[in-house]
Amino acid sequence: MGPDVEAHRWVLSPMAYNLASMTVQVRSFAKINLGLRIGAVRGDGFHELLTVYQTLALHDVIRVSVGRGSGIEIRCEDPRVPKDESNTCYRMVEKAVRALKAKGRVVVEIEKRLPVQGGMGGASSNAVAALLGLERGLKKILPVAERLRIAAEVGSDLPLFLIGGTVLGVGRGEQVYPLEDLPAMACVVVTPEVGVSTPKAFAEWDRKPVVLSAREVVAVPAQDFSSHPNKLTAADSSDRMVELGRGLAAWLSESYSGAPSIRRKQRGRAENPLLALVRTGIQNDFEQVVFPEYPELSEGKKAVERAGAKYASLSGSGSTLYGLFASKEAARAAAEKLRKQGWAAQSTVSLPRREYWRRVFAG
Ligand code: C5P
């Protein structure tokens, strides 16, 4: 019996947890970035980041089985997904098995439903789902801090999937803090057939000439322009991050202030917290380097805006684009319109934290 036939035998049961075959099924959700600011390059070569992640209802399905023997096997019908040690699920399982002091042969089957294009954190989410499945399969759980540490070792945007909902990401994006959840929002995701390399996009950002706003020019002494161009870049980056940080702090303190009038207003109109967030100046810095390189992505964003999005952006370094809409109907109609124009578009909703965790293990 070939490995694929065997894999199908395992997945016959729709149950989330099947004792007989020890297969655990986990949903692996996508994310978008509601704003992303790139800061200075750090000593370790990574860039300081400030971003707000938001989980979406679109998902892959991960099935984890633990049997006799040893080793890790990755199965996936999509030829674009690596099956070797470079797969994020492989790396995560390897670390988790060691940390859990567990024994056995671990098979991870990845059912790709999300587009493989970047920006939605598919591979990162798959790895976290593999960890959750493994823990269930072994009936052992790692301490939360250990989970976060291992996830961050595998990649910068894995830890967010251990929190779900609306998440603040700092450091290189791996330090995550649960934010007060934005209400579920209707959105459209567009996945152009373009592969954007994240390291290349960061490198391009570093090469980008510094364009300072009038306010920033006033703030920087003139002699610094000629003598310390790199220092200037860093100052510019930090300024921009501080600016978004202030905006987010204002947004949060407003929503946490408990002032009854504010809270009533927010509950009454679901899009208000989002509009308040948009007013903080959220934007994705990657657009500045990715759009000139791939003009079709800039066109895609304009098409999403024309289709009626309240807010549209590139997600991560792309190529995924998304738009947030006032209602599910508006999102569905926009996705249909975009598809007619030739864009690969689908409508979905954002997943607040509770809903995220309710659905992760739902069969
Ligand atoms: O951590 P992750 O695997 O997602 O990072 C992929 C690459 O993107 C890194 O090797 C690095 O080149 C770049 N990166 C960065 N700064 C970050 C995150 C990623 O320069 N904050």
Outline:
With 363 residues, the chain is of the alpha+beta class. Helix content is 43%, strand content 23%.
Written account of the structure:
This protein has 363 residues and is of the alpha+beta class. It folds into 2 domains: 180 residues, Ribosomal Protein S5, domain 2, CATH 3.30.230; 167 residues, Alpha-Beta Plaits (2-Layer Sandwich). The chain contains 14 helices and 11 strands. Strands 1, 2, 3, 4, 5, 6 and 7 form a 7-stranded mixed sheet that branches. A 4-stranded antiparallel sheet has the order 9-10-8-11, with helices on one face. A hairpin with a 4-residue loop joins strand 6 and strand 7. The protein is globular. The relative contact order is 0.17. The N terminus is likely disordered. The protein binds cytidine-5'-monophosphate. Cytidine-5'-monophosphate (C5P) binds next to strand 3 and helix 5.
Oligomer: single chain
CATH C-level class of the largest domain: Alpha Beta
SSE order in H/E notation? HEEEEHEHHEEEHHHHHHHHEEHEH
- Mean pLDDT rating: 84
Low-confidence stretches: 1-20, 214-235, 266-271
Beta strand %: 15-25%
The counted number of beta strands is 11
**Distinct bound molecules:** cytidine-5'-monophosphate
Number of domains: 2
What coarse outline follows from CA principal-axis ratios? globular
CATH topology title of the largest domain: Ribosomal Protein S5, domain 2
Notable features of this structure?
363 residues; alpha+beta; Ribosomal Protein S5, domain 2; Alpha-Beta Plaits; 2 domains; 7-stranded mixed beta sheet; 14 helices; 11 strands; globular; disordered N terminus; binds cytidine-5'-monophosphate
